[in-house]
Amino acid sequence: MSAEKSIIGKTETALDDIIDLWKRRKPVCVLVLIVVFLPTAFTLYQQAIAVPRLKSKATALDTEMQKAERERDKAQIRLAPFLAAANQSFSNAPPDKRLDLLFIKMDDMLTKVQTATDKLTYKRSIPSKIRQALIADLRVAPPPQKVLVIYPSGDEEARLFALEIEAALIESKMKVESTWWRGSPVPSGISVLSKSKISNPSAFCISRALANAGIRSEYMRGTLIPNEDLQIIVGPKP
Fold first, then answer.
1. Biggest CA-to-CA distance, the chain
2. Are residues 80 and 12 in the same domain?
3. I need a labelling partner for 174 at 20 to 30 A (CA). Which of 42, 113, 139, 183 fits?
4. Averaging pLDDT over each range in 78-87, 113-122, 136-145, 165-174, which range is the top one?
5. Is residue 96 part of a domain?
6. pLDDT tens across 29-70, in order?
7. Please, which contacts does 167-173 make with residues 24 or more away whose CB atoms are closer than 8 Å?
8. pTM > 0.70
9. What pLDDT, on a 0 to 100 scale, did the predictor assign at position 47?
10. Is 148 contained in some domain?
């Protein structure tokens, strides 16, 4: 009980001193109060506001770190087969370059596959506007006695393209026949063959008309099927 009275007495004495100081020298009293209560106010601020904020930020950062670690682990699992392939294929390269080299190789392979796929699926044809220009050029060519359009047996794409060329020749008032060829392999692309001097002008003009229409062709002397002066060979796609 005496200890409590002593504390109460000290507190009363301190308050009396502060009140007396306030009456005598207010600025000094304000300064004393600031010095006494400022640490207490700062401690209360930390406990009530600052510390909870820091704990909240720390929790958020910890959550983000755990999420990043999970994503990293998933990425490592996905990359594991590629890393193994890169280490096996480029064992002499620096470790930090192996994966890049593997991706470059894969990209090159995909490009080659895409090119091969495009080549297989691409079909030659004569667009409508180009076809009309081709027919106009063919009509001014010296008319041959007959044009034989030849395509390799079993090549459906070449057969369909040969039929388009045959139709354009017929529309330009030329006498045309078409047939397939099963003998020695025919050259790729379009070849215009002329057997004699009589068919040379017609063959040259047909080759030029095809070139003007954007259809690349080779004009040459010779024959594939005997007794036929002028032949157009529609070979496989180049």
1. 143
2. yes
3. 183
4. 165-174
5. no
6. 666 666 666 666 666 666 666 667 777 777 778 788 888 888
7. 168/126, 168/131, 168/134, 168/135, 168/138, 169/138, 169/206, 169/232, 171/135, 172/135, 172/138, 172/139, 172/141, 173/139, 173/143
8. no
9. 66
10. yes
Token duo for residue 46: 């930390």
Of 185, 125, 187, residue with least CA distance to 160: 125
Q: Which CATH number belongs to the domain containing residue 194 in this structure? A: 3.30.70.2390
- The number of distinct structural domains making up the chain is 2
Question: What does the block give as tokens for 22?
Answer: 């306030």
Is residue 217 classed as helix, strand or coil in its secondary structure?
Answer: strand
Residue matched to tokens 């996905």: 78
- pLDDT, residue 71, reads 86
User: Tokens for 167?
Assistant: 């139709």
Residue type, 145: Q
Q: Are 184 and 231 in contact (CB under 8 A)?
A: no
**What pLDDT was estimated at residue 106?**
83
Which residues form the domain of 21?
A: 1-89
* CA nearest to 144, candidates 194, 105, 96: 194
> What is the rounded average pLDDT of the residues 9-33?
65
Q: Are residues 138 and 214 in the same domain?
A: yes
Percentage of the chain surpassing pLDDT 70? 76
As a whole number of angstroms, the distance between CA 216 and CA 138 comes to 15
Residue with tokens 């297989």: 120
